[in-house]
Write a structure and sequence with these properties.
By secondary structure, this protein is an alpha/beta fold. Helices cover about 30% and strands about 20% of the residues. It is built from 8 helices and 11 strands. Strands 1, 2, 5, 6, 8, 9, 10 and 11 form an 8-stranded mixed beta sheet that branches. Strands 3-4-7 form a 3-stranded mixed beta sheet. β3 and β4 form a beta hairpin. It is globular and about 45 Å long.
Length: about 260
């Protein structure tokens, strides 16, 4: 398919990064103000959550005002450690209340969500199915959260294989914007099993960004995000502002 035949003008891939996902909404707000809005979105983990709110008709600022009220303890609860330390069922119930569209294929803006098929060991890019369940699966960091069962298969965080899902957009869009929120930060200590699990996951998925920048017409990765832990939801406004200011100061030309 040639560029002129591609279905969408602009596609945006929103990467994973836990609480740093607030930056996605700041980035999208700044892009909107520059006249850049996605015709299709792909997302994984935190990017899937942000993408779902935008795809369901919320503005980035509206989505931020909703999501910032969540705390880590408000979307998770202790689990009997069989397949994960925590359950993310509370995340699903909150999403059901805030996103009225129940099926992925019925969202206002097309949304592709990357999940990891844990039994078959491969990524899948889903465009149909129950929105809340698929987002829950895409954001379920292995070991930390239990996998989510969909159609008899177990799925976890799509970032295992593709932490900024540009791939499903390449053949569909004339221009592709990739947004990474996972620059690695240095830390001084690890004091809990949860911290070890999230740190291990963060270090494991980061190299998958590899040649990502070369596969995008515009690549966005605010370096200041490295100062924020991926499980720290207490600095939502700061993280939003970092994303917003970074893009606001960019000279963007997608022509």
């Amino acid at each position: 398919m040639s560029k002129s035949e591609k279905k969408y003008d602009i596609g945006i891939a929103l990467g994973g990064g836990g609480a740093r996902g607030f930056a996605h909404l700041g980035i999208l707000q700044a892009l909107n103000e520059k006249g850049i809005k996605p015709d299709v979105i792909s997302g994984v983990s935190a990017g899937a959550i942000a993408g779902a709110f935008i795809a369901s008709g919320h503005s980035p600022k509206e989505a931020f005002d909703i999501i910032k009220e969540y705390r880590f303890t408000g979307i998770s609860e202790l689990n009997i450690p069989k397949t994960g330390l925590l359950s993310s069922a509370k995340m699903k119930s909150r999403l059901l209340k805030k996103i009225p569209t129940k099926k992925l294929e019925d969202l206002e803006v097309p949304l592709i969500i990357c999940v990891s098929n844990m039994l078959e060991g491969k990524p899948e890019y889903l465009t149909e199915g129950p929105v809340a369940d698929i987002i829950q699966a895409s954001a379920s960091i292995p070991v930390l959260f239990s996998p989510v069962e969909l159609n008899g298969k177990l799925y976890s965080d799509g970032g295992i294989f593709d932490n900024v899902p540009v791939k499903p957009l390449k053949d569909k869009c004339k221009k592709v914007i990739g947004v990474s929120i996972s620059p690695i930060q240095e830390i001084e200590e690890l004091t809990s099993l949860i911290q070890v699990a999230t740190r291990m996951f963060q270090l494991a998925v980061n190299p998958s960004n590899g040649e990502l920048e070369n596969n995008c017409d515009l690549f966005i990765e605010p370096p200041e995000l490295c100062n924020y832990d991926i499980m720290d939801t207490k600095h939502a406004q700061e993280i939003f502002d970092i994303g917003y200011d970074y893009v606001k100061n960019m000279d963007i030309d997608l022509d």
